[in-house]
Amino acid sequence: MTKRTRIYTRTGDDGTTGLVGGGRIKKNAPRIDVYGTVDELSSAIGVARASLRSAPESARARRLEAWLAWSQDVLFNLGSSLATPSEETAGPTVHAGDATALERAVDEADAELPPLDAFILPGGSQTGAALHVARTVCRRAERLLVGLHESGERVPPHSTIFLNRLSDALFVWSRWIDADAGAADSRWNPHATPPG
After folding, report:
1. How far apart are CA 152 and CA 132, in angstroms?
2. What would the DSSP string read from start to end of the chain?
3. Between the CA atoms of 94, 98, 99 and 100, what dihedral angle is there, to the nearest 10 degrees?
4. Which of 17, 36, 18 is nearest to 144 (CA)?
5. How far apart are CA 130 and CA 45, in angstroms?
6. Residues 66, 177: Cα–Cα separation, whole Å
7. In the chain, which residues have pLDDT < 70?
8. Which residue among 27, 38, 43, 161 is buried most deeply as judged by most CB within 10 Å?
9. pLDDT tens track for 42-69
10. Residue (of 141, 5, 15) closest to 82 by Cα position
């Protein structure tokens, strides 16, 4: 029989959290901020995946679902690695090939889109808009990760590059799924005037 684990432990009531391999740090420490944001990013991608279920079935939607599911797995690996400050106890992590895979995905999707000749505003389909939200969270995670690295803390190799490529992929995927849904790019109008 499987033993149930209690969800609440009360160990964090003092404002600290445990790291993989032992040790506790403040919940507002930069390391926690980074992997908390990586978790937020995975949640935002989960919202985009959920919205795909109500979108029309298509080969492009199935392909996007596969890429988003894979991205969440890699993000979980990254979060786990960030929660493990010691290399000796490190488990799954981000690999150089993960960023290369995203480059391939970006090129694949971008080849099916009209050239980008203007800045794009978030919008379009529900999935496209959700991917834009995920993209902005991804950029924040990347900024926080750079800050953690610059402070002298250990960060997983290849993780900054992965997040950079993932934000690019999320942008292209938003345009890609919007086009599939028949939603035109929402182009920035630098000379917009208030509605009459």
Report:
1. 31
2. -PPPPPS--STTTTSEEE-TTS-EEETTSHHHHHHHHHHHHHHHHHHHHHHHTTSPP-HHHHHHHHHHHHHHHHHHHHHHHHT---GGG--S---HHHHHHHHHHHHHHHTTSPPP-S-EES-SSHHHHHHHHHHHHHHHHHHHHHHHHHTT----TTHHHHHHHHHHHHHHHHHHHHHHTTPPPEE--TT-----
3. 150
4. 36
5. 7
6. 13
7. 1, 8-14, 16-22, 24-27, 86-90
8. 38
9. 999 999 999 999 888 999 999 999 999 9
10. 141
Structure tokens at 75: 């993000």
Quickly tell me which residue has 């086009």 as its tokens.
179
Which residue matches tokens 């432990």?
A: 9
pTM of the model: 0.90
Cα 130 off chain centre by: 11
